[in-house]
């Protein structure tokens, strides 16, 4: 993997492009009660999940069992297609079987190392990094031994899954592969391998990215108002990030949330800095659809001034517009994301409750 050294500086700058600007007020609508998700069940689109998981005979015969296990586990954990991840592993080092320099030790001519061919700088600055520690890169501890080792298949595969996810997968797979190795012929080769590894010969969307799974999410929403908020936010998937964007073609992190609430006649603050103190704090584990999850996004942000926000769509998952180089708006998992500051419930803000009360009386 080459050509990625400049991506991280751009990512840091883009993520800290903090969702500013203000827009006008909109009329208020009635909000119902807010039961938790724990009171019901949420369908998980099992048919689609199985379709994405099925492997071909070619995959079974070509991929070493331990590698296949790691591809599946890492893809499921991060939310990308396992066969695309396996396609990268095949194209880079034949699933670690290549005897070329840089696979099991050292680096190749381009400075790449390990079975997934990370640049040392892209990995985190060193080939082996203690976890947890502070670093900038995709270094990951896939086997739970406390170390992120670029030559360890479990660690490298998990890191590769994170990189694909950050750069557009699962929705924009080709873009994520192009960032991984900046050549379209490389993208074509990996996609061909991925299709060969899938039983149905396709690169399918994981359930959380599949529009067919939206209806169960909307049905499980705590109220009709929350369902409307989710419907708007989910409809923006695939659109690009734009600093200060409030649609209709692009959004920033707080812009999509602002407009989702506005779509049902509710107005919350426009910026992340304004949205954080507006909602009522919700303990971790009690968040529900429509709530907001905030992150410390880098320089100039912190516990009292979070710089990034996403909207909870189901327990552990959010819809977010992350940054310009992070791929399109998508549903992602926040369970393993670092830097979470906390959760809030805008619909329980006293100002909104009072306005809703007057609305009901009038």
Which features does this protein show?
362 residues, alpha+beta, six-stranded antiparallel β-sheet, 14 helices, elongated, disordered N terminus
Please outline the helices and strands:
Blueprint: H1 7-15, H2 46-53, H3 57-62, H4 65-78, H5 82-93, E1 112-113, E2 118-119, H6 120-123, E3 128-130, E4 147-149, H7 153-166, H8 173-180, H9 184-197, H10 214-219, H11 224-234, H12 253-262, H13 272-278, E5 280-282, E6 292-295, E7 308-314, E8 317-320, E9 330-333, E10 340-345, H14 350-361
What proportion of the residues is helical, as a percent range?
Answer: 25-40%
Total DSSP helices: 14
The poorly predicted ranges are: 2-44, 46-51
Q: Measure the end-to-end span.
A: 63 Å
Task: State the major sheet.
Answer: 6 strands, antiparallel
- Kindly estimate the percentage of residues that lie in beta strands according to DSSP: 5-15%
Widest sheet, order of strands: 5-10-6-7-8-9
The arrangement of helices and strands along the chain is: HHHHHEEHEEHHHHHHHEEEEEEH
Assembly state: single chain
Q: In one word, what is the shape?
A: elongated
Secondary structure category = alpha+beta
Number of strands: 10
Average pLDDT works out at 83
What's the gyration radius in Å? 21 Å
3D architecture notes:
The chain has 362 residues and is α+β, with helices and mostly antiparallel strands. It has 14 helices and 10 strands. The chain has helices spanning 7-15, 46-53, 57-62, 65-78, 82-93, 120-123, 153-166, 173-180, 184-197, 214-219, 224-234, 253-262, 272-278, 350-361, and strands at residues 112-113, 118-119, 128-130, 147-149, 280-282, 292-295, 308-314, 317-320, 330-333, 340-345. The protein has a 6-stranded antiparallel sheet with strand order 5-10-6-7-8-9, covered by helices on one side. Strands 1-2 form a two-stranded antiparallel ribbon. Strands 3-4 form a two-stranded antiparallel ribbon. A hairpin with a 2-residue loop joins strand 7 (308-314) and strand 8.
């Amino acid at each position: 993997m080459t050509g990625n050294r400049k991506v991280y500086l751009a990512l840091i700058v883009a993520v800290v492009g903090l969702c500013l600007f203000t827009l006008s007020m909109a009329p208020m609508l009635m909000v119902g009660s807010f039961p938790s998700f724990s009171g019901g069940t949420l369908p998980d689109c099992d048919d689609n999940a199985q379709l994405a998981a099925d492997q071909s005979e070619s995959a079974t015969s070509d991929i070493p069992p331990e590698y296949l296990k790691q591809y599946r586990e890492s893809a499921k954990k991060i939310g990308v297609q396992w066969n695309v991840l396996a396609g990268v592993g095949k194209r880079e080092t034949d699933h670690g079987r290549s005897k070329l320099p840089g696979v099991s030790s050292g680096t190749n001519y381009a400075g790449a190392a390990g079975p997934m061919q990370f640049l040392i700088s892209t990995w985190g600055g060193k080939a082996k990094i203690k976890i947890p520690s502070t670093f900038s890169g995709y270094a990951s501890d896939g086997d739970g031994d406390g170390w992120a080792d670029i030559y360890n298949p479990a660690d490298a595969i998990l890191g590769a899954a994170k990189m694909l996810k950050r750069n557009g997968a699962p929705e924009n797979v080709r873009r994520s592969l192009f960032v991984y190795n900046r050549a379209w012929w490389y993208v074509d080769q990996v996609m061909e391998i991925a299709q060969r590894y899938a039983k149905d010969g396709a690169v399918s969307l994981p359930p959380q990215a599949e529009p067919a799974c939206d209806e169960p999410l909307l049905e499980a929403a705590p109220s009709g108002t929350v369902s409307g908020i989710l419907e708007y936010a989910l409809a923006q998937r695939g659109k690009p990030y734009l600093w200060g964007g409030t649609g209709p073609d692009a959004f920033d992190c707080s812009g999509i949330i602002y407009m989702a609430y506005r779509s049902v006649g509710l107005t919350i603050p426009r910026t992340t800095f304004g949205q954080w103190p507006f909602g009522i704090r919700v303990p971790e584990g009690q968040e529900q659809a429509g709530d907001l999850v905030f992150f410390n996004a880098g320089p100039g942000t912190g516990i009292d001034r979070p710089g990034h926000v996403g909207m909870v769509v189901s327990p552990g998952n959010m819809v977010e517009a992350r940054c310009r180089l992070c791929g399109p708006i998508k549903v992602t998992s926040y369970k393993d994301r670092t830097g979470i500051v906390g959760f809030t419930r805008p619909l329980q803000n006293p100002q909104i409750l009072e306005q809703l009360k007057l609305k009901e009386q009038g």
